[in-house]
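Blinded run. Sample ID left blank on purpose so nobody reads anything into the name before looking at the predicted structure. Input follows.
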Amino acid sequence: MIGNRVELRKASLADLEESTRAVAQNLDRLRPFLHWARRPWSPAIQEKFLSEVDQLWGNSKAYHFAIRKEGVWVGAISVHSICASERRCELGFWLTAEAEGQGLMRETVRLLESELCRVGYTRIILRAFEENQRSISVAQALGYRGAQTAELQPGRERQVFFEKII
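Blinded prediction complete.
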């Protein structure tokens, strides 16, 4: 999928070097907001993840995309928590520090929303930790509504859920 400034491609082992470097450089700032960033991480774990993308894709369990700007890997977006019978899914995303603040994620989400609508999805959910104002801003800017807050660990972690009917 190609937008004005971003290109989304199925994540693959071809992304290993760039994505590994980006994760390593951004892991500390991502850790408060992404569950996978809190677990032990290594280049081998990144390689294993990328090697499993085809299987997840083939089983319609998840769709993982690399986000590129001018050919450079700048982030990732995934379609997951898929419920085909209800035509709904959830999006998860992140950008490198250098790519933030340029409106790239809003463009990326719009691009993916169009494709999801084309293939029959009608409901998209975004969730973010309460402290993750960048992700919350993306959801609000794109018209996601019905923010609900859920406490994941009593007194420690709260996530905000947004939904959009497309």
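Unblinding after everyone has recorded impressions. The chain has one domain: 7-123.
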